[in-house]
C-alpha cells in the first residue's frame, strides 16, 4: 500500500491507495517550517497511525506547504516520517510539485493553486521548470482568497459598493468597519481573516460590484503571474484549490479574455496525486 499526503498548515489529507481502493484520512496539517519535529511526530502517532491498523505501508509521498527542496526543515520532516514508518520509502516534496503532478500528470503544463493564497509553476512533465514567486498576501498571492477578500472589503469600506451591499456584508459576516480594521491590522493571520469573506463573494457573485472584485483578482493573477511564462497561450493551464473551484466559471471567463486555455479545475489535488502514483508510469 502507498500513502500520499496533501498537507497545508491547518489540515492534511492522507490517501491510502492499494488493493482495497482509495481511502482518505484527515489529520492536522504538518508544515516543517512552523511545526517542530516532535509535534509532527505526534500528529503521525496520535492521529494517523490509529487509522492505519493492519495496513502495511511500503511507500510514502508527502507533499506539503513549507517543504522546500534542500532545506533543513524538510530533511528533518523526512527523517520524522521515516522514524514512524521505518519499513517505508519516503519522499517529501513541496505542495507546488504535488499540484503539478496531480494536475498535469506526465505532460507539460502550467499548474496553479488558488486557495487562501496562490502559486503557479511551469511543469515539463517531470519537474518544475519555472516558478513566479507567490510572495504572500501582502506582496502577491493574486487571485487567492485573501486577495479576493481584500478587494471586497476595501471596496466596501471605501464606499465603492452600493450601501445595501455593504450592509449585507456587515450583517452576513457579523462584522463592522472597526472590527475589520482591528482584524487586519492588529490581530494575527490577517490573510485567513480576509479569505473568510470569500463565501460572501460566492453568495453575491451575481452583483456586478462583487463580480468586479473577483475578476480583478483573477486578472491580477494572470498579468502578474501567468503572462510571465513563455508560451502561455499554447500551454494548458490547470488549477486546484477551493477558490478556483467555487469561481470556476468566472475564472474560465477571465482567462479566456487573454486567450489562455484552461484545463482541469479541481478543488483538491489528492485525487490527481493518487492517479499520478498509481497509473503505472
Structure description:
With 281 residues, the chain is α/β, with parallel strands linked by helices. Helix content is 44%, strand content 21%. Strands 3-2-1-4-5 form a 5-stranded mixed sheet, with helices on both faces. Strands 8-7-6-9-10 form a 5-stranded mixed sheet, with helices on both faces. The protein is globular and about 60 Å long.
Q: Secondary-structure blueprint of this entry?
A:
Elements: E1 2-7, E2 11-18, E3 21-28, H1 37-48, E4 59-64, H2 72-84, E5 89-94, H3 95-104, E6 109-114, E7 118-123, E8 128-130, H4 136-139, H5 145-157, H6 163-173, H7 177-185, H8 190-195, H9 198-203, H10 208-224, E9 237-240, H11 242-246, H12 248-257, E10 262-266, H13 270-278
Parallel strand pairs: 1-4, 4-5, 6-9, 9-10
Antiparallel strand pairs: 1-2, 2-3, 6-7, 7-8
Helix pairs in contact: 1-2, 3-13, 5-10, 10-12
